[in-house]
Amino acid sequence: EEYAFIPRWRRDDAQISLSDAGGGIGPHVDNYDVFLIQMSGRRTWEVGKRLIREQEEYETLVGGIDVRILSTWEEDRQRGYVERFELDPGDVLYLPPRIPHCGVALTDGCMTLSVGLRAPSANDMVSRLAEIMTTS
Questions:
Q1: Segment among 5-14, 76-85, 108-117, 126-135 with least mean pLDDT
Q2: DSSP per-residue letters across 114-136
Q3: SS3 of 70, please?
């Protein structure tokens, strides 16, 4: 298996984004570590410089759509709270949990692999340990 070096309990999500120039999903946050791997084409990523807590996220979501898009992105950009990165094929960008980000394809046929890895809380680990001990 290609990703055997990553324990199964850390794997949460894997997606491929395929877009033409200008395509993207909009500014959002994820609840897990994300590695963005540029496979083909070029994509620009804007990454927030501050953590967005769940309460703030829910208070600033764009209404009436099925995806969780942040409505305050332009304000954060104007305040200097956003950094910009351009990824070429083979580049990798790491995003910690709850850091807002927005990617836009710069070229047609732009493909980005997104790999999400969860980090269990102390409570999750203690619960799992207790489960293992009671079944041993």
A1: 5-14
A2: EEEE----HHHHHHHHHHHHHH-
A3: strand
Rounded to whole angstroms, the Cα distance separating 100 from 78 reads 15
Of 8, 2, 4, 10, the closest CA to residue 116 belongs to 10
Q: For 54-76, what is each residue's pLDDT tens digit?
A: 999 989 999 888 889 999 999 99
Among 16-20, 106-110, 116-120, the minimum mean pLDDT is found in 116-120
* CA separation for the pair 38, 57 (Å, rounded): 27
Token duo for residue 43: 């994509």
Contact 43, 106 (CB under 8 A): yes
Q: How many CB atoms lie within 10 A of CB 37?
A: 16
Compute how many other C-beta atoms are within 10 angstroms of the C-beta atom of residue 83: 11
Q: Which DSSP string do the residues of 42-69 spell out, in sequence order?
A: -EEEEEESS---HHHHHHTBPTTSSS--
Do residues 105 and 16 make contact, with C-beta atoms less than 8 angstroms apart? Answer: no
